[in-house]
Design a protein that fits this description.
18% strand; two-stranded parallel ribbon; eight-stranded parallel β-sheet; alpha/beta
Length: 290
């Protein structure tokens, strides 16, 4: 039995689909009973649990051979990341009690960065789970190509794609969520001892210029990238409703300045996805019109 958290999200859902296709027994860990029926109908066992409730999480992981865990996305955290710390504490307690044979944790490129930024939440998670007395693999994934979904409607109507990633000709490590799910599925069925760090990016790095050109090709119109001036970021994010935009700003700074990157470079634990940019864009545009 493999316990999957985040199953209603992009990575968790695709992970569960791949494992079910391979004949694996899945326990879907969800917070909302209303979203459970579709997974129950596909043969999944259902466990209801909140990611900040150690007792319900422990029950969800109990008896599982392996568990896939992630943090709920928090893009506007309070200073000190109290939300992430609460979730991490619950996960550690639950996994310590349930003791699955192994744990695969979705982490991020740059989790080792010394400068505080939005991804520091994943560093907190890694450091805490590393203390578990069970084998843990941290899957450090690159920037999700699917983040471009936020730009589709604006590009369609204006022909512009605002970019916080700069300069526009700088290649950025990116990966499709399908490749993240595939790597996680492989790890869940592997055996190892101790702690692993697995770094994952796509077939090649992508510049904002290339991203805009590919988006234009998919939309059937010219799309130009437009660098968003750094001095305007805070006002823009606050206008969108953010209360504490600095961690998000520092994360983008990290990609732009190069201190958010993979820790080890090419190694035996480096993995490369196969999904090309255009395939992701076709999927996003199909979803948008469905």
């Amino acid at each position: 039995m493999l316990a999957i958290t985040g199953i209603t999200g992009q990575v968790g859902g695709q992970l569960a689909n791949e494992l079910l296709a391979a004949g694996c027994r899945i326990r879907a860990v969800l917070r909302d009973e209303a979203k459970a029926s579709a997974w129950r109908e596909r043969g999944c066992e259902i466990a209801l649990a909140s990611m900040d409730d150690a007792a319900s999480l422990g029950a969800a992981f109990s008896g599982a051979e392996a568990a896939f865990v992630l943090l709920p996305p928090i893009f506007d955290p309070h200073p000190g990341f109290p939300e992430a710390r609460r979730h991490v504490a619950a996960l550690v307690e639950a996994l310590s009690l349930a003791r699955p044979q192994r744990v695969v944790c979705l982490s991020t490129i740059g989790a080792q960065a010394r400068q505080e930024n939005l991804l520091t939440q994943l560093q907190i998670l890694e450091r805490s789970l590393a203390e578990l007395r069970v084998p843990v693999a941290f899957l450090r994934a690159a920037w999700f190509i699917e983040n471009v979904a936020w730009d589709i409607e604006g590009a369609r109507s204006t022909g512009l794609m605002p970019s916080f990633l700069q300069p526009l000709d700088k290649p950025v490590p990116m990966v499709a969520t399908a490749d993240v799910a595939h790597a996680a599925a492989q790890l869940l069925r592997e055996r190892w001892d101790g702690r692993r760090i697995v770094e994952l990016e796509g077939p090649r790095r992508i510049t904002p210029n290339e991203l805009a050109a590919a988006l234009g090709q998919a939309l059937g119109r010219d799309v130009a990238p437009q660098a968003v001036p750094r001095e305007t970021w805070e006002a823009l994010f606050r206008a969108q409703g953010m209360q504490n935009p600095l961690p998000r700003m520092r994360m983008v700074d990290g990609f732009n300045e190069g201190w958010i990157d993979f820790e080890r470079g090419p190694s035996a634990e480096s993995r490369q996805g196969a999904t090309p940019l255009q395939a992701v864009l076709r999927g996003l545009l199909g979803a948008a019109t469905a």
